[in-house]
User: Fold this.
Amino acid sequence: MSTQADLSRPAGGGHDADEEAVAIARKRASEGKKAEAKLGMMLCAPAALVMVAVMAYPIAYAFWLSLFRADLRTPDQNEFVGLSNYVTVLSSPIWWTAFGVTAFITVVSVILELVLGMLLAIVMHRTIIGRGLVRTSALVPYAIVTVVAAFSWRFAWSQDLGWLAGSSAPLTDRWSSIAIIILAEVWKTVPFMALLLMAGLALVPEDLHKAAAMDGGSAWQRFWMITVPLVMPSILVAVLFRTLDAFRVFDNIFVLTSGANETSSVSMVAYNNLIRGLNLGIGSTMSVLIFITIAIIAVVFTKLFGAAAPGSDEGGRR
Amino acid sequence: MQNETGKSKLMWLVIDLIVLLYAFIPVFWIISLSLKDSATLNDGNYFPRSITFESYQQIFANNDFTRALINSIGICLIATFIALLLGTFAAYAVARLQFPGKKIIVGMSLMVSMFPQIALVTPLFRIETAVGIFDTWLGLIIPYITFAMPLAIYTLSAFFREIPWELEKAAKMDGATPFQAFRQVIAPLAMPGVFTTAILVFISCWNDFLFALSLTSTSAARTVPAAMSYFQGATTFEKPTGPIAAAAVVITIPIVIFVLLFQRRIVAGLTSGAVKG
Assistant:
C-alpha cells in the first residue's frame, strides 16, 4: 500500500522532497508499529482467552460458591450463608492440622531439595567423566509420573512386601509417613532444582574461581563468596517455584497414605470435601483459602527477595 | 600428578555412581516388582528370583487398563498439540514484537503456573457437569491445555529469542509480510525448540493425577495414573501390587526412553525457560 503512495507522488523539488520522504518514513514506521501491535495482540489472544476462561472464571465461581451452603447430598438446602463457611473452615482443627502438615512438608522438602539440588548441580557441572550419562540419568526422576514414583515408594515401605520396610510398617505411623512423603517429593524434584541451578552455575566465570584460588581462597570460601552470590537469582527462582509447587502437594500423599494418620495436605482435605464429601461450599472455601495462601507466598517472596520470576520481561530479555 | 588425576577420576566415578543409583533405584524396584510371580511377590527382595510376565498379561487382558492407556495417549497428544499451537503464537509475539498487553500475557502465564490446581476442581466439576463434558476427553483436554500453556509460552519464547532477528528483517525487506516472515523464516528455525517444548508439555500432561481423578467417573476418559488407583486384585483378597507395578512400568518406559534420547534438548528447554539473567 505504501509503495503505491510513493509511486503516485511525482518527484518534487530538492528540499521539499527530502522533508516529505522523512514524513513518509515516519508514517510508515508508525504504521509498522501499529501493525506489529495488532499482530502481537492477535497472536496472544487465543492463549489469553483460554487462560481467562479456564482460570479466571472458575476461580470467581469458586469464590461465589464458597459463600453458599452447597452440599450435593442435600441440594434443596442450598442457601446464601455469607462468610460462615470461612468461619467453619478456619475454626476447624482438621484444616489447621492439614495446614501445618503442608507447611512442614513444604519447608523441609524445599530445604533438602536446595541442598541436594546444589550438590547435584555441581556434580553435573564439574564431573570429568560421564557428564552426559550423569545429566541424562538425573532427568529420570523428572520424567517419571509422580503417581508411579509414589507407588514405588509405597511398595518399598510396605510391610513384608518392600525391600526397605522389612517387618516394619512405617506408613502406618504419622511421622514416618510424613518423612516418606518428603522423601518421595525430594527424590522427584531434586533433578529439576539441579537443572535450574546448573544454568546459574554456567554463568559463573571460571576466571573468578582461578583468581580467588590464587589468592588462597579455599574451595568452601570460593563456594560461599563467589558461586552463591552469582547463582542467587537462579536460587531464588528455583526456591519460589518449588515452594509454590510443594504447597500444592497431592499426588504423593494420595498414593502413599490417602491422608491416614493425619498426613493430609490442604489439597487432600479440599479434595476429600469436594469429591468424596460432595460438600461444594466447604470445599470451595478451602480452595479459595489455598489460592490466597499461594498468592501471599508469591507476593512476599517477590517483595522480600526481589526474585525475578521467569519471563518477567526485563529480567528475561537479554 | 598422574596419581592426582587418577584419584580425582576415581572420586568422580564414585560420585557419578551415587547419582546413577539415586536416579534408578526406585525405577528398577518397580520394574522388579512387575516381573515377580505371585509366589515371590511378597518376599521383600529387591531383585526378582524368577522372572514372569504374568502381571503384564493381566493388565493387557483388562479392558479398563487398555482403555486408560488409549485415553492417556489421546488426551495428552491432543492437549499438547493445541497448547503448542496457541503457545507458539503467543511466544512469538512475546519474544519478537512490541505490543500493548505483553506484560499482561506474561503475568497471566506466571499466575497460571503458580495456580493451585485443587482450586479449579470444584468449579470445573460444576461447569463440566452442566455443559455435559464431565467424564469426556474434552473435559480433561481443556484444563491440560491451560496448565501446559505457561510452560509452552516460557520455553518457546526463550527459544525464539535465540533466533537471529536479521533473517526476519531480511525476509521483510524481500517483501514478506510479518506473517510470512513468521511462517517461512522463523518457524523452520524454531522447530527444534518447538519439538523440545512438545516433549515438556506432553510430560506435564502425562503426569497429571488430580484432574484425571476428579473430572472422570468411568473408564471413558480416565487416564492411567488415575486408573491405577482403582485397580483391583485378581481376587478380592489379593492386593493388585503386580498389576499396578506393571502399569507403572508401561507408562514410564516410553517417557524415559524419550527423555534419554533427547536429553540435551530437554536440559536446554528446562533451563532456558526458567532462568535467564
Residues 94-261+290-305 of chain A form a domain with the MetI-like fold fold (CATH 1.10.3720.10). The first helix of chain A runs from residue 2 to 8. The two ends of chain A are 35 Å apart (CA to CA).
